[in-house]
Amino acid sequence: MLFLLLSCKSDLKEPSSNVTDQEEQIEDQPADVPEDCLTLEELYVSQLEGIVEGACVGCHVSGGLASETRLVLSPGSTSQNIQALSEVATITENEGFLLWLKPTGQHVAGHVGGELIPKDSAEAEALALFIGRANGTVDECAEAFDPTQVQIDCELEPPGRRLLRRLSHVEYDNTIRDLFGIESNWGASFAPDNVVHGYNNNATGLQVSSLLADQYMNAAEEVANQVIHAQAELIIPCGILERSVNCAEDFLLQQGGRIFRRPLNSAEMAFYLGFFEDIYYEDGFNEALEWTLAALLQSPHFLYRSELGQAGASGSFELTSWELATELSYLIWQTTPDDALLELAANGSLLDREVLHQQVEQMLLDPRATQTISNLSEQWLSLNLLPIVPREGDYDVFTDELRTDMGLEIDKFIQGAFLENLTLSDLFLAEYSYMTQDLAHFYGVSFNTDSIDSDGFARVDLSSDHRYGGLLTQGALLTVHALPSSSSPIHRGLLIRERLLCQELPLPPANLDTSPPAMDPNLSTRERYEAHSVDPACAGCHNLIDPLGFGLEHYDGIGRWRDLDGVHQIDASGVIAGVAQENVSFDGAQELSARLSEQEEVAQCYVQQWFTFGFGEGDLHDSSISCGVEDAFGQYEELGGGLQSPLLGLTQTDRFYERVGGATEGETFAVDSDYTEIDPPDTDLPGGTSSELDVYVLQDSNWGTGYCNTVTVTNLTENDIVWEVTLEVPGVIFSLWSAESSSGQGLDMVFTGVSWNETLGPGGMTSFGFCAEYQ
């Protein structure tokens, strides 16, 4: 959410009479101190405090209207307000520093409170100087600072952060499918993934709740059961008469490596083979292998993608060939690496960037790439809402079959343009689409029966039709971004502003009525919505939104062309504000599409969507991310600006190959160069055996600032036990599954079971795990 500086329209007041010791010292300064050498505190007190206390504090306080923004002030407290303003003074946008853009009314998203400080005023000059001094750009004796010049040297910015990226639910299902050859809907049934920056695969947003941990466990057991009983001949590397511990070892070497997307090391082999043996001698081969497979599928090394790397000579961490294979596969296919990629990882070929680029081009020809394109476009344009958006009133013609056809139409349209590597202009200005006969009849266009595909679709020529053609006139897009019983200039304008121009707007104030204007047969939709441009509390944002949406007013709430809005003539003219070309005018969807296709901001936004989706990071306030997007856009231009160029470009940035971390951080989880024999792992991790319980702790990973452990608890008695385990846990636990925890003495944490595993029968065993960050 963008920082929002709100004006409560209160009259300017004199500075607070609450004089601090610091202020008394300021008053005692000699009179001959040059004015341009005022300290930051003196500058604030003498020239800005009156504005802050009079116009800002009323809203930017705890519990106030703007309490959810990044600026929360304390009435009458000079020192606290200087600190709060100084923190905000470091935030930048493409157009300049946010603390300058908002109160001077220069921000592209507007300002709900209007223009607080005229940009050419003395107060604005003081604000600019405060910003420069607060962020350390200029010293105390500087006379001026230009807050519109944001200077970030991207050559000095490090590559991306080291990450462990949890599989999204889509990636989980695809991975199960491609590992075992079975259809997977387990991921789709999990607790929904968090959506951050518009996508559900954000690296920091994908946490593991206790509910999801239970779902992972249940899914792992169900998958293992189905695979061992239905796919045994495909994954067990030996015949029925040879199924022994040696066969299980071969299984771990082969299938375990595919599941972890790298070879298991000696410690892991020892652990999982020991786990297998404990069950094998009691319950037989199939039962033991089923539980071993279930354990593998609950490991962080399956559920997370490692992007930790190994320390390189330059000080950054270089991703291993296994990590590159995984990153590449999930970027293009959203699934686990296939055998060909794993072979290239094993022989180190993927470390050669030329070899990796060749793989990218080959992988784009695979049908799995089209699934990724669909997933991106569904989230980018909110097309995943099409099956559930409600329609009422005069829209009874909008059947479930029509919804499905619309969804397939835009899917085929975008996929086709992407696979042909057309340009954004081609996407916006296309004079064709893909329709069924029913869909063509709905749109009122001619249908070609000569080339119908297996889904009943044919490519329809729209070159002679002034109504339809290009992305913005796709029925699915127009339907999703509308109201249940009418069109919506706001929804459609917001789509263009935020998802095609990447200019995120603030939410409206909490006390503002955001209901759509009431239906009035005497007014057109445009006339009803134009009231937003009159209300000062709404005008800042709606002047950026509504004119874009007005350009699509010839299309009703389900994407049908209309010449009239009820009995009213339609005015589809508008203007594109907030882009490099000032106030670009248009009339109708075709001109709007043409003007958008000419804007560099649209191309930059398209690249940004791929960056956010591909790397799982999208906070442009982070300079390393904004510089990464800039680098990706440069690659996009060098590669010709085709629809495939952003994806290809991501694999040519340094960010794809390198990560940055602290000097004390460890490397990626070790992979043995040659596995020859199984030895029990040497470990000084907590655990051990008592007269009642055996506790075994395996550290699954350690990335320097944190780690993940799996703990196995076994009942050694002949009676039922409600187990409790005390372990020393350095750091703070941020993820815990299959157990509950409470604090003990010192670093000790006490772990107990949850409902399904708190009681262990004689000889019974259970596992739980946790991840912690060092403090």
Quick summary of this structure?
It contains 28 helices and 23 strands. The chain is of the alpha+beta class.
Account of the protein in words:
This protein has 775 residues and is α+β, with helices and mostly antiparallel strands. The chain folds into 4 domains: 130 residues, no CATH class; 143 residues, no CATH class; 218 residues, no CATH class; 86 residues, Sandwich (Immunoglobulin-like), CATH 2.60.40.290. It is built from 28 helices and 23 strands. It has a 5-stranded antiparallel beta sheet with strand order 14-15-16-23-19. A hairpin with a 2-residue loop joins strand 9 and strand 10. Helix 11 packs antiparallel against helix 12, helix 14 runs antiparallel to helix 15 and helix 26 crosses helix 27. The chain is globular. The relative contact order is 0.09.
